Amino acid sequence: MLGFLKKPVVVTAEINLNLVALTVMGLISRLWGLSYPRAVVFDEVYYGQFVSLYMKRIFFVDDSGPPFGNMLLALGGYLGGFDGNFLWNRIGAEYSMNVPVWSLRLLPALAGALCVPLAYQILVELQFSHCAALGAALLILLENSLITQSRFMLLESILIFFILLAVLSYLKFSNLQRHSSFSGSWWFWLLLTGVACSCAVGVKYMGLFTYMLLLAISGLHFWHMIGDQNFSNVSLVCHFLARALALIIIPVAMYLAFFYVHLTLLYRSGPHDQIMTSAFQASLEGGLARITQGQPLEVAYGSQITLRNVLGKPMQCWLHSHMNTYPIRYENGRGSSHQQQVTCYPFKDVNNWWIVKDPGMQQLVVSNPPRPVRHGHIVQLVHGITTRYLNTHDVAAPLSPHSQEVSCYIDYNISMPAQNLWRVEIVNRESDTDVWKTILSEVRFVHVNTSAVLKASGIIGASLPEWGYRQLEVVGEKLSKGNHQSMVWNVEEHRYGKSQEQKEREVELHSPTQMDISKNLSFMAKFSELQWKILTLKNEGTEHKYSSSALDWITMDTNIAYWLHPTSGAQIHLLGNVVTWASANVAALVYVCLSLWYLIRRRRKIYDIPEGAWQLWVSAGGICVGGWAVNYLPFFLMEKTLFLYHYLPALTFQILLVPIVLQHLSDHLCRSLLLKSMFSALVVAWLSSVYLVYNTFSPVTYGEPALSVTELKDLRWKDSWNILIRKQ
């Protein structure tokens, strides 16, 4: 029974020494001297702020993309014991001792190092030789720009890692499709494809390009399966559902999970939450939540409220009035009503309070029980401090002459009667009987007499002159098509008024609320709002010293100075390996020309290469040329500030194409042994030049050793490169 113990338990394993060696070299090239320089390097000043906010659990909005990449950087800080206390305000600032520099830079460096063996495996899965795969890995290993970008607290190396992982996983899955469908390894690589795609998109939206490419390739492969009579209908349905689960459902679920973790971690109020809606702000600990805690939920006749404009541009502001009146005549000679000014004020103030009044009653207090205001009800809005009624009439607004002036009515005993009735329209209502709710309801106020809609002026950045204290204009918009956010308001602060006398009411307006109502948003509501902000809240495109156009990238006519030592000539630049970049461009051109030649010849029934070699050539091009195209061409359509590092994902695919083209030329164009030998010698010489250029530029890749002025000038191979040289 125990006979099996008579023989030793033996475990055998195949170890690819090429992979091991490449991984070790990748780790050495990316991790060596990782803490140097111990200073803020280029965009570390940007991502470091987010890491600090994660450490302090303070909410922020990064309008450049989803949160997964920032969370990975924050994970490095967490593992290093970072407390978040560092002022990220200047490139080149020395890190204090509490900043774990090595830990913060570790994950990007590991991702960059692992791209080397991934490149090797991708070419093996594309059915190319181990020699070609080794060449691709060496090109990635010796690419100066990829080394520089992976050695700092930046996201491109992480993005490229997940992109390559997704490509490798799909290729492994596709190769298993032929003989091991629905096996454990088949499921593993299919699911890993979806996971890697979602991680790539979660790091930066640029990952969406490769995700779309793999979806298209998967769709094409499935289309061919449909035409294969060896697959039954049931089998095809199962294959389709498996791909839908792994490549669509799981990535979407993971994308939502990234935001769920992000919002769970960042539960405290901070400076960024002011661009969010009142409901979102109230869900955060501190800030608005401290003010709104204990407010009544339902707005009733007699309620005292502040009204925040939902648009929040050019800045958040609240409906406001004060004792001052519009000037009798404006600077351009137009006349006004000389009524009390109504503005949108970007600060909290007692003059932001309004009282919701029933037009049929005189009282300004909430009855017992309260009578809630519903969608479609007619109300008057009484300014809390001055007790004048919100009014609009057929008088041109001060800055927007095509819109109506909005004022608080003063009776001058002239032929201008009060027009102060407003219909409440709840924009986000579920039914026509919905109750107007604090924070949650988004409402429009439609003027009963003129049908004008109360609106924060659409003149972005314009403010009233000195007589209006530079506050923002509020108008009655006559042509109110749609529900533009500038026409939508929500109640932010709210209390039930109890004092009928004006003096007592003024005291009441300054006092805190008493009741306790919770207004926590659901995750999907918070996700939808945050996602919309990320997609729409873009900084104005500004020129940067090192910004560039997409055309500059192909020939590397630009560079970026990442860091300069304060005293010596040591510096770090984002510069690529010139030989590799030029070779990648030539390889892409050769691939396109050869493909066109083959296509024309095949159209004439002339087959220059075997069918298997043609299929291999096409599939490799679909991945490499397709990956380059989808990661590069979209930048010509983008209206944003562009930098050289945006090209690195596309460059990575282009580099993979170089050994593919070289092997194809060797296998199919070098017919004789002499030609093959000469071609191999040229390839060795070319690889030597790649290493020579890598070694030449390594001082500005790693930042050491410091170079003299003469040595720095010698590195300026192009006049367009900005190599920093100190004045003597």
TrEMBL record:
The lineage of its organism: Eukaryota, Metazoa, Chordata, Craniata, Vertebrata. The gene is Pomt1. It holds the Pfam family PMT. It comes from Zapornia atra (Henderson crake). This is Protein O-mannosyl-transferase 1. One of its GO terms (molecular function) is dolichyl-phosphate-mannose-protein mannosyltransferase activity. Residues 296-359, 370-427 form the MIR domain. Keywords: Endoplasmic reticulum, Glycosyltransferase, Membrane, Repeat, Transferase, Transmembrane, Transmembrane helix. It is an enzyme of class 2 (transferase). Its EC number is 2.4.1.109. It is a multi-pass membrane protein.
